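Why do we bother with a discrete structure alphabet at all? Because it lets us treat a fold like text: something you can write down, compare, and reason about line by line. To make this less abstract, here is a complete entry for RN213 ligase. Read it the way you would read a sentence in a foreign language you are learning: slowly, and without expecting to understand everything at once.
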Amino acid sequence: FQYLKRFDQGCNLDMFWYEALSVEGSPAECLQLFLLHCGIVDPSWAELRNFTWFLNIQLRDCEASVFCNPDFVQDTLKGF
């Protein structure tokens, strides 16, 4: 949710890191963003769960990768 919210606001995500245990927005806002970005017109709860699970894994792996660390790559992969 934190990434999607900032993405919709046009923020630069290159320097953003997930803030564990922090609460942002309401449950309704969270659901609305998931529905907007999941890519399915009328998703089931299982499809929403799979979307959030997959997105979470991809973002966690991205944050853990040295190749996505802005301190390591500096400006060579801007916007990647």
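What the structure line is telling us, in plain words: The chain has four helices and no strands. The chain has a mean pLDDT of 86.
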